[in-house]
Design goal:
This protein is an alpha+beta fold. The chain is 29% helix and 22% strand. The protein has three domains: 8-214, Aldehyde Oxidoreductase, domain 4 (2-Layer Sandwich), CATH 3.30.365; 220-314 and 376-451, Aldehyde Oxidoreductase, domain 4, CATH 3.30.365; 321-368 and 463-743, 2-Layer Sandwich (Aldehyde Oxidoreductase, domain 4), CATH 3.30.365.10.
């Protein structure tokens, strides 16, 4: 009997092919639909097609390849960004093929593709203008080439569905691509305004979906290179710690082992003594050990056999309680000298004495994991003159630069191949796995694939920071906003990652949704922030600080509404400017949800609203809570104002995805710190929502148009925790001031 290794992916691919050849269309340019390669870094167009500009390549058969500078990690950029180019190009969408832009070429040619860092919900809002320009420029060059051939003015030539026409003459884009590539303009053509769009704003099936459904899409963890080895790694479980000793002989004696390498200090790669000495480099190579073998199973088995001793470097005493105690010590001391002022209007403290009612409350949110489904991984191939890197990176040029630094090569000699990403959420933005893989690959001089276990991925995950809040507010005699003092104490992402972005010691991103970016008007307001960092590295998380801030602040706004004797939505509207852009999404969510502030015990609606990355989202959650405290989120109505739409179906999907992500964090998310290390090391301990907990999500567009172009990948994450917490209060009378929700007894009656 022949032995055959069957994986889930092989099963999907094999059965899909046997079931009618459904994969064939993905390899046939122009076969019924726009498409992408399962390995989107591969560029057959480099050999076969004519490049009209850096973004557009036209093949002889009429296939038009549009290059994508952003990383596809589920947010739909492999469809939305080609749509932007296609809108201006007037190409037949069925003839479009998408591929990743080349990070090496980007670096060699002075940032040719302008923006290749994916994050901040910026793919459309930060790339749209130059992508439109790329499409318009290619179109006009094609028209100019046809006009020259036909002896007419360029204005007399029209472009539609990949065909150029003038009078009774016509020709395809492919016929004029070579001539178009040699044409230059003194002035680039104007791009369309939204009222002129014909393709943008229509729902189009995502190009990456078929590949992910049939199992052919190549994620980083799928990469295979001829002759490659496999590396399993383990670094200090207490971040910043040190590997003092390990049983190398035990690992070397295990089957299939090729090499055992010490990482970090006194070993290969970057030397790190402690985090304070290397600000902005905490995603580098930590102290640890790598076992390299002929298979990953052999590498991991040998790593697990090896006894290891670690030095926590003075951080072994840190726990959740010590972190919390330090934060609340500052939080309850308004005169603490470490506070930095973020916003001041009037005299908040002085005005409290004239308030009709004064309320105070404290809130807490914990560290959170990114919980990407794909464990961290990177494959490298190194020689003295060239290196190749295959990795799912949110910032491909950044990964390339990190690899080049570790390899000791010039950046133009490093070729970074971006795969599909099995989740990013900010975790894959700093490429710490790339530095580690590059160090191992250089030491070996052979291709190697480094894979972190789920446990290693979780323990070394660079969490979302904790945050603590103290609010004090005064209401006037009419129940209106009169004075607000807000103090926030949290762990700073900027200080850990990019300290040069700190503004005189203030991490502005830590206060989004509470400071001037809040929708509410306070005649007297003071917002102050104090940093309390520790040895745990932190990193951007989906919507960054907005989810925890809006949980706390929008819950407190509900407390104020109750004290004022007002409906929660009406209280919000009453304390917004008349021309506020927040009003319309809030009204749409109210009306679409069938809002009721008084549904009776065990059932309730809650609301929260906020802005992130240029988009405003209002959410109304409807929950039921049994007498024994069993919670179910029945429905969420989300009204989003992102200004305009490119692909409405993608926006709906991202709103739903964001709500799931924010909701699972609100219900279950919490990292436990014990003896300086993270306890949760897999999904049996770090709990996620299950499919049977999924509420009905209804997305409503509340677009203001004009010059507004907001992001959609993250903003809907921000309000959901506050909306659910407020709904729980409406259903049970229990006010939640800490997350996650699972830690609370919700029983009533």
């Amino acid at each position: 009997m022949t032995h055959m290794e069957i994986t889930r992916r092989n099963f999907i691919v094999t059965t899909a092919a046997a079931g009618g050849g459904m994969m064939l269309g993905f390899y046939m340019p122009g076969a019924n639909a726009a498409n992408i390669n399962m390995n989107p870094w591969e560029r057959p167009t480099d050999k076969d097609g004519q490049e009209v500009n850096a973004w557009v390549v036209i093949d002889p058969d009429g296939t038009v390849t549009i290059r994508v500078g952003q990383s596809e990690m589920g947010e739909g950029v492999f469809t939305s960004l080609p749509m932007i180019v296609a809108e201006e190009l007037h190409v037949d969408w069925k003839m479009v093929r998408a591929e990743y832009a080349d990070a090496n070429r980007h670096v060699r040619n002075d940032n040719l593709y302008q923006r290749m860092s994916t994050g901040g919900s910026g793919a459309v809002r930060r790339s749209r203008v130059y992508l439109q320009q790329a499409g318009a420029s290619a179109r006009e060059r094609l028209k100019a080439a046809a006009a020259a051939a036909w002896g007419v003015d360029r204005a007399a030539v029209t472009a539609k569905d990949s065909v150029l026409s003038s009078g009774n003459r016509s020709g395809t884009f492919a016929e004029f691509a070579t001539a178009a590539a040699g044409i230059t303009f003194d002035e680039e053509p104007a791009i369309k305004t939204p009222d002129q769009f014909q393709f943008l704003g229509t729902s189009v099936a995502r190009l990456d979906t078929p590949l992910k459904v049939n199992g052919t899409a190549t994620f980083g963890i799928d990469v295979k290179v001829p002759g490659m080895l496999y590396a399993a790694v383990e670094v200090a479980p207490v971040p910043g710690g040190y590997l003092t000793s390990f049983d190398e002989a035990a690992a070397r004696a295990a089957p299939g082992v090729v090499e055992v390498l010490r990482l970090g200090e006194n070993g290969i790669g970057q030397v790190i003594h402690n985090l304070d000495e290397v600000p902005n480099r905490v995603t580098g190579l930590s102290s640890g050990v790598a076992v390299v073998a002929d298979t990953y199973y052999h590498a991991l088995s040998a790593l697990n056999l090896m006894a290891k001793e670690w030095d926590a470097r003075g951080n072994g005493h840190v726990t959740n309680q010590t972190i919390r105690d330090e934060a609340f010590s500052a939080l309850r001391n308004p005169s603490d000298p470490t506070y930095k002022t973020a916003e001041t209007i009037g005299d908040a403290m002085g005005a409290m004495g004239g308030a009709a009612k004064v309320l105070e409350a404290e809130y807490w949110t914990p560290y959170l994991d990114h919980a990407c489904m794909e464990p961290m991984n990177c494959t490298v191939s190194y020689t003295a003159n060239r290196a190749d890197v295959w990795v799912g990176a949110q910032n491909p040029p950044g990964a390339l630069g990190i690899a080049a630094e570790e390899f000791g090569l010039e950046q133009e000699n490093v070729f970074q191949h971006t795969t599909f990403l099995g989740g990013g959420f900010g975790l894959r933005s700093r490429s710490h796995e790339t530095r580690q893989a590059a160090a191992i690959g250089k030491a070996l001089g052979r291709p190697v694939k480094v894979v972190w276990t789920r446990e290693e991925t979780t323990r070394q995950g660079k969490n979302r920071p904790y945050a603590s809040y103290a609010f004090k507010a005064g209401l006037d005699a009419n129940g209106g906003a009169h004075a607000l003092e807000a103090r926030v104490v949290s762990h700073s992402i900027f200080q850990h990652q990019i300290p040069q972005f700190m503004n005189e010691g203030l991490d502005g991103i830590a206060l989004e949704g509470i400071d001037a970016r809040s929708p509410y008007v306070w005649p007297n307001k003071a917002v102050n922030w104090a940093m309390r960092n520790n040895h745990l590295p932190v990193q951007w998380w989906r919507a960054v600080a907005a989810p925890q801030n809006l949980f706390a602040f929008e819950s407190f706004i509900d407390e104020l509404a109750e004290a004022a004797g007002k409906d929660p939505i009406q209280f919000r509207l009453d304390n917004m400017p008349a021309d506020s852009h927040f009003r319309h999404p809030l009204e749409v969510a109210r009306d679409a949800s069938g809002w009721s502030a008084n549904m009776g015990r065990g059932e309730g609606m809650g609301v929260a609203i906020g802005e992130a990355f240029g988009s405003i989202v209002a959410e109304v959650a409807w929950v039921t809570v049994s007498r024994r405290g069993q919670l179910r989120v029945e429905r969420v109505d989300a009204a989003i104002d992102c200004g305009h739409t490119v692909n409405p179906d993608t926006i709906v999907a991202q709103v739903e995805s964001s709500i799931v992500y924010g909701m699972t964090a609100a219900l279950y998310g919490e990292m436990t710190i014990r003896d300086g290390r993270i306890v949760e090391d897999n999904f049996d301990k770090y709990l996620l929502m299950r499919i049977n907990e999924m509420p009905e999500v209804r997305t409503h567009f509340a677009l203001r148009g004009g010059d507004a172009w907001g992001g959609v990948g993250e903003p809907a994450t921000a309000p959901i925790a506050g909306a659910i917490a407020n709904a729980i209060y409406a259903a049970t009378g229990k006010r939640l001031r800490e997350l996650p929700i699972r830690n609370h007894d919700l029983s009533w009656g």
